[in-house]
């Protein structure tokens, strides 16, 4: 007894000491931690505002004190952990540790967690020590409930603790085995109502971050309690919806994935998948974007079930049309993940899958037919047959076995004795086999046709091919949408679209090369990020080939680039040149091998197609330094004896030579003598091709004549002899066959026009630059000679001399073009009457190629001088309007565009005729017209006037590429100050013209796009006044409605609303029309949503009450109508409701001068606050 009492007294003394230690520790922890936070914040603030020098004594002292406490803090926490791990329960009666002691220790831990820097990387040891100390208390000292409550409180007040709390809960549930705490915390968050979450503010973000982080750490432990979180999916907080969806995603990736799931696991997986799919259509764009990212992670982890691929893929394609940029980017990333991790095939082409699919369908059909033909006869089991016949058989046997008399019995015995033993034995065997209950059917199965298992395998294969084709079709649908995003204004979307195009190209998806080619012009983008993305994409696709050796890599690289060059436009080739030059200039190890492969293809040493030979010569032209040393080889191969056999190869070779020589700009120009073999081959090929019917001769001739003027010393003499030679060959042909070949004549006229065009270009570019170069050299020599005199006026004198010399040279060239090029002794003059005759007599010269060539050549002749242009401008416009050939009209537009640039004053009166072609019935003509006019307007050659309304009509063109060109026109025009703002009233007037009879929906679509460019408040205010004034001159109801719709499309503000009220008299008499009243009413509806109280008062009182007063005045003659009758229920006749328009001016639909009348505003008094809120007011 004494020993026990001593032990109890000793325990009490130790208990008291331990409690005292706990109290003291808590006190010091709180003080030191508070001082640490205060000093840390003070030092940081003073250092940031430069109040305290970083090397001052005060700063050093504070920093040393803070550092000392940080090191000691971790030691104290480790000591406490070791203490609590001991069995200290015997220090208390009944072996229960007092709650007060536990509270002291936990108070220190939670106080430390409130430190703003606890989540920093440098405090990771302290953070881990706190978590383990709390873990011991949760496991051994029943602190589970208190810890869960404290975690919720920390999240509510300290948003930065979300990852720390998630790590703590994860450690407690895994390392200490207290999994129940996960459920407690999840239930606490799940039970939060929407009202509580709305009040907490930052706590919602903390809860969301905590759940997302916890889902990445312990998704398997969260599954039993995940149902309590699903209620937040219907809540108002988008961040919580995102967090729950991310938890579901982690569970699906790390727990509910694979083929080894049981029925319960598969049911949970399907339920979670359905939940995620629902939130792909969430009302908040942030949720939609994050759910798409969750699906991207699921697909990348290969956790998406195969039967959901098609459905989720379709939803992702639908999200490409989302209004949110982030959603679109996430959808593109998801689609790229689908393609990169698809379970179907490495080659996704629906066209290639059709043949295997049809083949397997035929096999399945044949298999089923064979099964039906060889179907076995239905076999009834012996047991079933015996059960059916047993009752009747028993009756028969009994009847036979019971003898009727003794005589009959003896006779029966004698007959049985006479039966042979063999017959009895055979009968017994047959009966035994027949009555056997479980007959072995293995022998019977050998004779049966193929089992249905083969049919099932064939069906599985067929279903796989169908799924693959469906997936490929969805990918192709996505490609069509994403290709349009390559030219969006958002840089991040363009980058994602570029990466997607690269992915689909690597998987050989059908039409993937379209996107790769379409993004090629982006190498000229002013945005460095977009340009770099395109360059990296092409480098990944084409310039980093795979192969076993250098030769194989070079072969692959050339093959890839050649495929891209096939059927590529000139613009595509120019863009590709920018990327290929980077490869050749980057010093790649493959450069020499690639050049060797290209030369082998071009020279024909390796068998290849003509397309690849042409691609090889164009690629060689992009490496200028390589080709300059092999110019003779290039000419001998492509421009030799077999030139006329392949004009396309010769044309591409000429283009290559032109590109090489065009960049030699330093010093004297590079020229060759007239007797050079190159010119001999070219002129001979051009002359022989004139009398040939080769469709590719035209393009070759144009490039060849261009090369003659680029390289020849006297190109005018060379081309003069060429024209004489071609004319002689044509005359010889006429002499042999007494009829003119229209094709040959058309080719001769094309040659004349091309020579005329390049002759003018040669004079104004080459000759002018050469004169300028020589003058510069002369002035430089004179300046050096006069430097010794040191005259200050030398520079000014030389400057004046240079300016006058430039004017003299320009005048000389103009005089040559005016007088000499079309002089009688010049051969070009001889063809001009023939051109005029062909163009002016389309009935007689009706051959399409001849008419086309003559029209284009005439426009090129008109480029020579103003006199020739003025003389034939009417004829060219007549051809433009009356020609039945769309190609002639398109060529005429191009020629007139060039003439507008060269002679703007002459073409200015004919501008309206150019705009008329925007409504041409042929899409190619409309496309050409909008392209030419876009260049003329954006380069300020044409003044922008009301005719731009014709371009606006193309915004709704049925041809999407024409509509995109029109949209690009207005996008570029909007970059000019006030351009669209100045044009809008005239555009509205022209589109509202009753003679045009435009559909209302089309008008609304056009105006919606145009008004999107009006963003300045001052422009909006001015447009409100202009449009309101036009109500006075509008004569039809449709014009009133169009003006009202235009007003409703403006981004109205307070000043605009005031201006609308000031112009009340302009439209007040038109409000009886529903088409006028409803759009104007929608203005107030839009402003009412986010308007401030003063603006609401102005909107409700100044506008609505004025309308009601006017309505009451209109309804005064109709006494039967109630005073508050709605304007929609009015049955006034048109003659009574509509104002008289005879008093208006009879001028055209133009903006009159604004007239303002000073009117005394009525005083407004509100009867009550409630009436003020509802918009009810009295005068």
Q: What distance lies between the first and last C-alpha atoms, to the nearest angstrom?
A: 101 Å
Roughly what fraction of the amino acids lie in strands?
A: under 5%
Rounded average pLDDT: 76
Uncertain residue segments: 1-12, 41-63, 437-451, 1094-1179
User: Portion of residues in helices?
Assistant: 55-70%
Question: What does the main sheet amount to?
Answer: none
Shape: globular
- What structural class do the secondary elements suggest? mainly alpha
Number of strand elements: 0
Note the total helix count.
55
Quaternary state reads: single chain
**Rg for CA atoms:** 46 Å
Subcellular location: Chromosome; Cytoplasm; Nucleus
Biased composition (Polar residues): 1131-1143
Domain Condensin complex subunit 1 N-terminal: 13-147
Keywords: Cell cycle, Cell division, Chromosome, Cytoplasm, DNA condensation, Mitosis, Nucleus, Phosphoprotein
Descriptive overview:
- This protein is mainly alpha-helical and 1179 residues long.
- Among the domains are: 344-369 and 456-544, no CATH class; 1014-1104, no CATH class.
- The longest helix has 47 residues, at 2-48.
- It comes from Hucho hucho.
- InterPro entries: ARM-like (IPR011989), ARM-type_fold (IPR016024), CND1/NCAPD3 (IPR026971), Cnd1_C (IPR032682), Condensin_cplx_su1 (IPR007673), Condensin_cplx_su1_N (IPR024324).
- Residues 887-1047 form the Condensin complex subunit 1 C-terminal domain.
């Amino acid at each position: 007894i004494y020993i026990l009492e001593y032990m109890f007294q000793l325990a009490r003394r130790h208990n008291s000491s331990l409690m005292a230690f706990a109290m003291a520790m808590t006190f010091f922890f709180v003080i030191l931690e508070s001082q640490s936070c205060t000093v840390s914040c003070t030092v940081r603030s003073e250092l940031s505002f430069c109040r305290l020098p970083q090397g001052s004594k005060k700063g050093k002292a504070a920093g040393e004190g803070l550092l000392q406490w940080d090191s000691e803090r971790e030691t104290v926490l480790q000591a406490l952990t070791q203490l609590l791990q001991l069995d200290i329960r015997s220090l208390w009666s009944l072996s229960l540790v007092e709650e007060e002691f536990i509270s002291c220790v936990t108070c220190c831990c939670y106080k430390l967690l409130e430190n703003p820097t606890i989540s920093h990387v440098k405090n990771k040891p302290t953070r881990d020590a706190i978590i383990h100390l709390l873990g011991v208390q949760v496991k051994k000292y029943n602190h589970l409930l208190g810890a869960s409550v404290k975690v919720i409180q920390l999240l509510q007040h300290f948003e930065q603790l979300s990852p720390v709390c998630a790590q703590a809960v994860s450690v407690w549930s895994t390392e200490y085995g207290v999994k129940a705490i996960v459920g407690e915390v999840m239930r606490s968050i799940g039970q939060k109502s929407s009202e509580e979450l709305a009040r907490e503010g930052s706590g919602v973000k903390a809860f969301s971050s905590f759940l997302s982080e916890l889902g990445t750490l312990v998704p398997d432990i969260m599954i039993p309690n995940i149902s309590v979180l699903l209620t937040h999916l219907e809540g108002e907080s988008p961040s919580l919806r995102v967090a729950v969806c991310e938890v579901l995603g982690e569970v699906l990736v790390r727990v509910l994935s694979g083929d080894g799931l049981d029925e319960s696991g598969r049911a949970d997986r399907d339920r979670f998948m359905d939940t995620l799919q629902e939130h792909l259509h969430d009302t908040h764009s942030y949720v939609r974007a994050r759910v798409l990212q969750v699906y991207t992670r699921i697909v990348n982890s290969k956790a998406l079930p195969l039967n959901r691929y098609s459905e989720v893929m379709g939803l992702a394609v639908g999200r490409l049309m989302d209004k949110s940029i982030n959603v679109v980017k996430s959808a593109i990333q998801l689609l790229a993940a689908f393609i990169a991790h698809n379970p179907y095939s490495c080659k996704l082409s629906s066209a290639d899958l059709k043949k295997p699919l049809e083949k397997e369908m035929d096999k399945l059909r044949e298999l089923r037919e064979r099964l039906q033909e060889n179907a076995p006869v239905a076999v009834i089991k012996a047991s079933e047959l015996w059960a059916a016949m047993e009752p009747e058989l028993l009756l028969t046997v009994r009847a036979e076995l019971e003898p009727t008399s003794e005589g009959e019995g003896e006779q029966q015995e004698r007959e049985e004795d006479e039966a042979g033993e063999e017959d009895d034995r055979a009968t017994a065997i047959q009966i035994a086999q027949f009555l056997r209950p479980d007959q072995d059917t293995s022998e019977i199965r050998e004779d049966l046709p193929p089992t249905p298992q083969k049919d099932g395998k064939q069906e599985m294969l067929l279903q796989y091919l169908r799924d693959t084709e469906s997936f490929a079709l969805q990918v192709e649908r996505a490609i069509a949408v994403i290709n349009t995003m390559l030219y969006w204004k958002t840089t991040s979307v363009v980058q994602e679209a570029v990466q997607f195009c690269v992915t689909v190209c690597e998987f050989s998806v059908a039409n993937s090369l379209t996107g790769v080619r379409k993004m090629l012009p982006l190498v000229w983008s002013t945005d460095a990020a977009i340009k770099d993305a395109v360059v990296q994409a092409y480098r990944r696709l084409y310039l980093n080939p795979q192969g076993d050796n250098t030769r194989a890599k070079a072969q692959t690289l050339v093959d890839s680039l050649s495929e891209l060059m096939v059927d590529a436009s000139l613009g595509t080739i120019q863009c590709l040149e920018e990327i290929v030059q980077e490869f050749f200039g980057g010093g790649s190890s493959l450069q020499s091998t690639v050049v060797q492969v290209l030369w082998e293809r071009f020279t024909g040493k390796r068998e290849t197609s003509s397309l690849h030979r042409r691609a090889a010569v164009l690629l060689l032209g992009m490496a200028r330094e390589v080709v300059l040393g092999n110019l003779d080889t290039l000419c001998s191969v492509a421009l030799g004896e077999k030139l006329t056999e392949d004009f396309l190869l010769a044309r591409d070779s000429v283009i290559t030579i032109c590109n090489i020589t065009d960049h030699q700009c330093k010093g004297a120009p590079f020229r060759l003598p007239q007797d050079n073999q190159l010119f001999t081959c070219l002129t001979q090929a051009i002359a022989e091709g004139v009398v040939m019917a080769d469709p590719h001769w035209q393009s070759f001739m144009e490039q060849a004549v261009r090369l003659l003027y680029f390289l020849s010393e006297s190109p005018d003499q060379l081309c003069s002899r060429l024209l004489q030679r071609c004319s002689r060959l044509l005359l010889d042909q006429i002499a042999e066959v007494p009829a003119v070949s229209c094709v040959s004549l058309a080719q001769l006229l094309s040659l004349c026009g091309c020579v005329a065009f390049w002759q003018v270009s040669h004079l104004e570019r080459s000759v002018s630059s050469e004169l300028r170069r020589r003058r510069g050299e002369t002035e430089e020599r004179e300046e050096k000679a006069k430097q010794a005199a040191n005259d200050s006026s030398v520079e000014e004198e030389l400057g004046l001399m240079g300016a006058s010399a430039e004017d003299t040279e320009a005048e000389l060239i103009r005089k040559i073009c005016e007088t000499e090029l079309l002089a009688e002794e010049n051969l070009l003059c001889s063809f001009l009457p023939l051109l005029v005759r062909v163009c002016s007599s389309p009935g007689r010269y009706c051959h399409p190629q001849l008419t086309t060539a003559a029209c284009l050549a005439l426009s090129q002749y008109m480029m020579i001088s103003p006199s020739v242009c003025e003389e034939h401008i009417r004829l060219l416009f007549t051809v433009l309007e009356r020609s039945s050939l769309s190609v002639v009209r398109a060529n005429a537009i191009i020629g007139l565009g060039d003439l507008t640039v060269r002679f703007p004053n002459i073409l200015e009166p004919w501008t309206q005729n150019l705009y008329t072609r925007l409504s041409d019935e042929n899409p190619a003509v409309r496309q050409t017209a909008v392209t030419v006019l876009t260049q003329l307007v954006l380069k300020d050659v044409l003044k922008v006037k009301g005719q731009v309304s014709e371009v606006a009509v193309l915004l709704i063109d049925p041809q999407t590429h024409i509509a995109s060109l029109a949209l690009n026109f207005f996008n570029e025009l909007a970059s000019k100050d006030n351009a669209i703002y100045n044009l809008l009233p005239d555009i509205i007037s022209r589109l509202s013209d009753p003679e045009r009879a435009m559909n209302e929906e089309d008008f609304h679509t056009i105006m919606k796009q145009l008004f999107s460019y009006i963003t300045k408040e001052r422009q909006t205010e001015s447009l409100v006044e202009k449009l309101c004034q036009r109500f006075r001159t509008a004569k039809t109801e449709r014009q009133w409605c169009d003006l009202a719709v235009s007003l409703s499309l403006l981004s109205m503000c307070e000043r605009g609303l005031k201006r609308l009220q000031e112009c009340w008299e302009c439209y007040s008499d038109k409000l009886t029309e529903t088409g006028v009243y409803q759009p104007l009413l929608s203005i107030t509806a839009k402003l009412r949503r986010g308007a401030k109280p003063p603006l609401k008062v102005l909107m409700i009182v100044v506008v609505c009450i004025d309308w009601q007063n006017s309505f009451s005045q209109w309804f005064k003659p109709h006494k039967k109508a109630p005073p508050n009758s709605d304007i929609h229920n009015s049955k006034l006749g048109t003659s009574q409701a509509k104002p008289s328009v005879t008093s208006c001016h009879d001028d055209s639909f133009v903006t009159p001068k604004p007239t303002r009348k000073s009117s005394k505003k009525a005083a407004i008094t509100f009867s009550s606050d409630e009436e003020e809120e509802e918009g009810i007011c009295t005068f």
